[in-house]
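batch job 7 of whatever, protein = L-ribulokinase
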Amino acid sequence: MNLIETSQEIENGSVSLGIELGSTRIKAVLVTSDFKTIATGSYVWENQLENNIWTYALEDVWAGIQQSYQQMAADVQSKYHCELTKLNAIGISAMMHGYLVFDQSGKQLVPFRTWRNNMTETAADALTALFGFNIPQRWSIAHLYQAILNEESHVTDIDYLTTLAGYVHWQLSGEKVLGVGDASGVFPIDETTGTYDETMLTKFNSLTNVQANPWRITDILPKPLPAGTVAGHLTAAGAALLDPSGQLAPGSVMAPPEGDAGTGMVATNSVRPRTGNISVGTSAFSMNVLDQPLSQVYRDIDIVTTPAGAPVAMVHVNNCSSDINAWSGIFNAFAQRLGVNLKPDQLYETLFLVSTKADPDAGNLVNYSYQSGENITKIKTGRPLFVRGENSKFTLPNFIQSQLYAAFAPLKIGMDILVNQEKIKTNVMIAQGGLFRTPVIEQQVLANALNIPITVMSTASEGGPWGMAVLAIYASRHQIGDNLADFLDRDVFVNPETMTLNPEPEGVAGYQQFIKNYQQSLQLEALAGETVKS
């Protein structure tokens, strides 16, 4: 599509918008009808630990969305010399899970409790036993039940419980709905009906301490919707929230709001059975679309769904790239003291390339990148920790390698359950996320860590908000009988640019030694969390 054709689409309101609220960045992506990105805007933010709860303020949500939109609109103006006044469709995605509750007047009852909090162990264990279905600590229902067990006073006033994406969608459209993929991290989904599991709803409502409240669970949860459903339209109030300048007209189709896991699946075309993808960032998770049920309930494997409602085995870990980012900041500060100013991509590429000279086992160094607790390894309170013995080979290449190895370690432990115990096989495993902006290095580390081929697409570092824009277009075009997988194959991923790396035997053996040391020394990380003050 040339400059004139793109300008015409903008003026005609044929362009669509995807917004994703990630852990460290809010990003807006504007795409044309042929799914090409033409403008972007972003806002950097960070969660805060307040009263021992990881949270974001809702004021920052709107400041970030508005700044991202403003930057994106300015990008349109500078490139195409026309104003952005109409949008064909809009989609909102955000970090999955967590706890956002409001009273009947729409007042927020308690600060947003994000996925990063592992404060619901008692509730999660009790609900897992009650349902015979794994309920992770970060799921919304675990947060709700823990608040009930804690006898928190706000619980009786709850009128609506939702996720971050669901909240933003509600404010823009007035609709209390969720994409089924995001909803599957709120309460278990029945694959056959595409909505919350009725048997489990009944069991939850039957609990004595739940019955003491004036609501029933179905009264306060958002309605799950599959991809392709029109989930309302942008209201006048919503348009003013999104674009305070007043230039944006209401009326745009709103797609069902999704979680970042769902948009990652769309962005990597991984929604068919036996496909999978891995997203890495502040947290990391793998999504494996199942062609058969798992043989048993695993506390470290979540059963969620694709945006179309198909079952997915999810391995979610709380910690991935935060410690790498922190160390990179230290190296950058040192470079600046030497008078060397590096752009972020240059900095990471320089550091990561050093790791190619490392020993396969990272020199027997041990590293934990735990900014917060980690459920898979049963660490309640995280503290980044680097340890070396007197016979360890403490070199810069090995140090950087240990950072990369540690970023993927909890994911490796969870994936081993699926690969070794359940014998789950995928025809393709695609990785995406900011770490893959530097080509080859992290991709090869991940392939060696998991001992499976890893594919990266050309859009690996920017997939989520673009994937939500694709879902927005799908909602505006959807016809009965046209499923999401066919739509992606036929219309979106016509000529995908990909690169696949296979595991290297020496690297696989080296990582196995690293993970052995890592697991044997976990008591050190647990002790650090207990003794080192935050």
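notes: Residues 259-316+422-500 form a domain with the Nucleotidyltransferase; domain 5 fold (CATH 3.30.420.40).
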